[in-house]
Amino acid sequence: MKVEVKAKINPSEDPEKLTEALKSIFPSLDFEIMDDRIFGESNEFGSLEVFKNKLGLQSIRDSARRKLKKSREDNKIRFFLNKQAAFVHKVNFSDGETPLGPIEVVILAKDLDRVIDYLAPGKEDR
Fold this sequence. Notes:
The chain is about 35% helix and about 30% strand. The protein has helices at about 15-25, 50-55, 60-70, 85, 110-120, and strands spanning about 1-10, 30-35, 35-40, 70-75, 75-80, 95, 100-110. The chain is globular and about 45 Å long. InterPro entries: PAB1135-like, Ribosomal_uL5_dom_sf.
């Protein structure tokens, strides 16, 4: 399994604050800044633990489950998060168009059903 997170750093944004915002959702990813972009990745399933917990704490598991299933293609899930929400340590899915630009998240795995069930279990599995 592989998790990739990336975002554009706007001129008005502090790269350190953006890194902190991303680490609030994906704390175990190693982030690197290159030019006007920030990248992070992990090969560990556990790197999704805080993201999973936030989905539960914010009571958005059902909408997250729908979004993850809709964003699935072959062995990849690709979705976008709102950067402004991340700055306040929250998860908010976006369709890619936000004032500050989105955070792109890609999850590559052989068994995506297992990943989706882990992140956002259906009501019957909670």
